[in-house]
Write a structure and sequence with these properties.
The complex is a heterodimer. Chain A is mostly beta strands. In chain A, about 0% of the residues lie in helices and about 55% in strands. By secondary structure, chain B is mainly β. The chains are: A mainly beta, B mainly beta.
């Protein structure tokens, strides 16, 4: 079984300060991990993904995440928050199944990021 | 990245009527698509996995006769909410699986907000 825990339901930062959104996962096998962002009344946009290559993954809009197997974590960071970063962020885990298999995603509960002026 | 189009973005209907939501992969073929439901301020809940040319696989607790899924082509899946009631009001999001093996990624539509009066 696999699961993902987002440790903070809400995070508030001031514009220009660093962002840290925490995510821990549980998986019996080698996981693939993703961060998605959802703006109000919008679908989900892929920020970045980890699929067993480099442990430090760089995504869009200046976000990055580091896969730490020893800590079973995949925290999302950004050096300097922008007002447009305010949104809901989902950490997602999925199993690395055999080639060609459809994979189901397991979503974390989400973290609402507020950016204060 | 790949583009998934979902239509309509917002629909209001009377109780007892049926509503069809379309999900299209615009620049790739998707053997597999997924349908999710999202309640306010909550994470996404997988409803069903839609496979082209075969019956959809529904998650436990999801009524297949209530939520009809058709995946008639490699670029189109539809979700029909039959005899809709106010409790069916929700945000429905589809995704399409692009790529193969460990490199496949789900790309999401922008979602459909269903309001049943």
């Amino acid at each position: 079984a696999q699961s993902v825990t987002q440790l903070d339901s809400h995070v508030s930062v001031s514009e220009g300060t660093p962002v840290l959104l925490r995510c821990n996962y549980s998986s019996s096998y080698s996981p693939s991990l993703f961060w998605y962002v959802q703006h109000p009344n919008k679908g989900l946009q892929l920020l970045l993904k980890y699929t067993s290559a480099a442990t430090l993954v760089k995504g869009i809009n200046g976000f990055e995440a580091e896969f730490k197997k020893s800590e079973t974590s995949f925290h999302l960071t950004k050096p300097s928050a922008h007002m447009s970063d305010a949104a809901e962020y989902f950490c997602v885990v999925t199993l690395s199944l055999s080639s060609g298999s459809a994979r189901q995603l397991t979503f974390g509960s989400g973290t609402q990021l507020t950016v204060l002026p | 990245g790949a583009v998934v189009s979902q239509h309509p973005s917002w629909v209001i209907c009377k109780s007892g009527t049926s509503v069809k939501i379309e999900c299209r992969s615009l620049d790739f073929q998707a053997t597999t698509m997924f349908w999710y439901r999202q309640f306010p301020k909550q994470s996404l809940m997988l409803m069903a996995t839609s496979n082209e040319g075969s019956k959809a696989t529904y998650e436990q607790g999801v009524e297949k006769d209530k939520f009809l899924i058709n995946h008639a082509s490699l670029t189109l899946s539809t979700l029909t909410v039959t005899s809709a009631h106010p409790e069916d009001s929700s945000f429905y999001i589809c995704s399409a699986l692009a790529g193969s093996g460990a490199k496949n990624i789900q790309y999401f539509g922008a979602g459909t907000r269903l309001s049943v009066l």
